[in-house]
């Protein structure tokens, strides 16, 4: 069965099918977001006592109502460009700048300067900023992003550790970094590591946390260990959800062993992926040889994840949810690329022009990665 795991409670979009069909009638393609789902995910995390501060990695979805919802749930924010810093400050005028963590990668000098001037927390992830622009950081508290030597994630393109990754300072360069920071009077108050995205194994953070804690003990001023994001959500029917209780226990264990450190985390996907669906309409159906195609009115311009990472999103025909999924089809978009396929070999009931197709678990890195390729506007966004 596409989408719904039998044991788990039905996805919100199944309960709200009528409202979604009405939305689709008003226009497709559209991303529809459910803020209750965002809240549920947020509360699952904040209930884990061991984490001192949760940040939302807003690159996953910077939509304003989502930011307001997570702000109300007590989240701080992690930004990777100064444009994201400005966006979150504009959206949440009462957010204290020190609750923004700015973690850019290969950004120009001006962005770091702007971040420092705005009073946000800045993470450096290379030697260059501290060796070449060290004076900029004099008297500032900074975090250092380290590369623990390996990456992890749902696809090679989302692994952010190890020799092949452009992120972080290698372990054997940390001493050099410290040396320059000391010389310029910058205080390293935190270590940061993010190994990748879409991790479903809770034990992962136990290892990362232990590795970082032992590293941090070599420094004298470290207060914060930022363990990054990467918390996955199941997408394929066979995926086992992340065990939050196990994650909580692992973090609590590390916290007991190293009470001198405050733990920070910065998930993106976990908070928003399941809260978003992409609604599209069938434009044409086609049979070529043995292959059936169902064409819809948006594709990789709205949701690039299948093309870029072979990501799997559940796809249903919302107009015919109760009909048996008898056809084996390729669900494709209208973009002039062979890779513009949203779902390979999916089971759907016979689809007709005008049917509403729902692509699930599209709230993270969906709209955020949209483009105007082929001058087709990506899907608009609406809160249900
Ligand atoms: N922190 C840092 C430093 C990051 O680079 C990222 C994501 C996160 C936190 C949040 O990761 P999350 O919890 O969302 O996994 N476009 C890809 C994912 C790229 C993630 C980039 N960095 C995808 O659609 O799967």
Provide a quick synopsis of the model.
Strands 1, 11, 12, 13, 14, 15, 16 and 17 form an eight-stranded mixed beta sheet that branches. Strands 2-3-4-5-6-8-9-10 form an eight-stranded parallel beta barrel, surrounded by six helices. It is α/β, with parallel strands linked by helices and 384 residues long. Helix 3 (35-46) packs parallel to helix 4 (64-72) and helix 9 runs parallel beside helix 10 (244-257).
What are the defining features of this structure?
384 residues, alpha/beta, Lyase, Ornithine Decarboxylase, Chain A, domain 1, TIM Barrel, 23% strand, binds ligand LLP, Diaminopimelate decarboxylase
Please give a structural write-up.
The protein folds into 2 domains: 12-32 and 273-383, Lyase, Ornithine Decarboxylase, Chain A, domain 1 (Beta Barrel); 62-267, Alanine racemase (TIM Barrel, Alpha-Beta Barrel), CATH 3.20.20. The chain is built from 12 helices and 17 strands. It has helices at 12-15, 17-25, 35-46, 64-72, 82-91, 109-118, 127-132, 174-184, 203-216, 244-257, 269-272, 305-309, and strands at residues 30-33, 51-57, 76-79, 100-102, 121-124, 141-147, 169-170, 187-192, 224-226, 262-265, 276-288, 291-296, 315-317, 327-332, 341-348, 356-359, 380-383. The strands form 2 sheets. Strands 1, 11, 12, 13, 14, 15, 16 and 17 form an 8-stranded mixed sheet that branches. An 8-stranded parallel beta barrel has the order 2-3-4-5-6-8-9-10, surrounded by 6 helices. Helix 5 links the parallel strand 3 (76-79) and strand 4. The radius of gyration is 22 Å and the shape is elongated. It binds ligand LLP. The modification N6-(pyridoxal phosphate)lysine is found at residue 59. One of its GO terms (biological process) is lysine biosynthetic process via diaminopimelate.
